[in-house]
Amino acid sequence: MRVEARSALAQALNAALPIWVGYAAVGVPFGVLAAKQGLTPLMIALMSAIVFAGSSQFIAVSMFGAGAGVVSIIITTFFVNLRHVLMSSALALHLKGRSKWLLSLYAYGVTDESFAVNLTRFNQGDWDIRRALFVNHSANLVWFISTVAGGYLGEVIPEGALGIDYALTAMFLALLMLQVTSWLMAAVALLAGVLAVFLSRLSPGNWHVIIATVIAATAGVVIQERFPSRRRHGERPS
Question: Is the pTM above the cut of 0.70?
C-alpha cells in the first residue's frame, strides 16, 4: 500500500472511530428495544439496512409497539428526516462534478454524525469523497451489526429487566436534549409536547403526533424568520 493511501486510510479511521463507539452504544439498546416490541432479528436487520436512521428507527419501533398504522409511521419518520435535505445541500457544495451513482452511494450513508465529521473535514480542505465514503459506510456497518446483536440479546433478556421498559423514553429525552441548543428549539419542543397531549385526548390513533409536530415546527420557522436577532442571541455556543 502506498504511503498516500495509508495516510488517507489512517485519517478516515481516525474520523470514523468516535462514530463507531457512539453507534455501538446506541445500536445495541435499539436492537433490544425493537425485539421487545415484537421485531425479529431479520426485521431489525432489514430496517437498519434500508433506513439507517437512528432517531427514525426509534420512533418507528415506538409507534409500532403502540399499534400505530403504517401511514402514520411513514409520515412521522418523513418529517423527522427532512433535516437530511439541508445536510445534503451543505455537503453538495463539496461534491460537485461527481457521478450520480457515487452521489447516491454517498447520500445513503449521511447521518447527523457523519455529516458533522465530513463537513468539518471538507471545510478544512484536506478531505475527499473516498475518505467520506469510508466514514459513512463503516459507520453504517457498525450500526447494522450493533442493532442486530441487540435484537438477539432482546430475545434472552427478561421483560422489564435493567429498566428496558423505560429505556426508549429515556433515549428520546436524551436525543431531545442534544437538539435543544436555543430558546426557540426549547419552545418548539414544549409546544409540540403540549399539543400532542391535548390532541391525543380529542381523537384516537397516533395522528396527534404528526399534527403537533407540523404545527410546532411551522410556528418555529415563522418565529425564526420574523425575529432572527432574538434567535441568534438565544443560541448557546457550540
Answer: no
